[in-house]
Amino acid sequence: MYTPEIYKNENQEEIKKFLLENSFGILINQTNGKLCATHIPLELEINSEGKEILYGHLSKENPQWNGFLDNDQILAVFSGPHSYISSSWYDHENVPTWNYIAVHVYGKVKIIEGEAVIESLKKLVDKYEQNLENPVRIEDLSKKTMMQSRGIVAFEIEITEIQATKKISQNRDQKNHQNIITELEKVNTNQSISIANEMKKCPI
């Protein structure tokens, strides 16, 4: 991912928090000579060997997983808030741009089987059910329902590299930086407010 130095995010704790909060990513690899991409949850954790991994699963009907057998190289893309930045918000003439936060994770994929599949499903369900009024538990599902797990391919991705971009007008002076925040708040969409809040965390 091309990222000018001023926009590189190298704060590892911040990146981990971002991945945990924005875990619905795009899994990209090459299958049968073509690039394939699937939008799925990819969860960050530390495995038993102390290595950072992402875990997830695909439907067996999705041919993308066949590429795992020939080439274990994977790219996972995670997007955060983003918003258009009008050049009318500056006190000088310039071009419009876009503010955004994104993380690219590179790694090696490995198919997992047996009880490890059920454990990965349990962790995924527990994460998203924990704050619901009537949380579902994998352990409580019938054998008939759990038979559906035979229709997935579960995997782990050993992370080899992380590239993180946080482009939130760090190249502007204090006056223009604040004015962008004010204008983003006037736009008043979920995305513009989120970017404005991120900018407030990193004052110029």
From TrEMBL:
It comes from the Bacteria. Pfam families: FMN_bind_2. This is PaiB family negative transcriptional regulator.
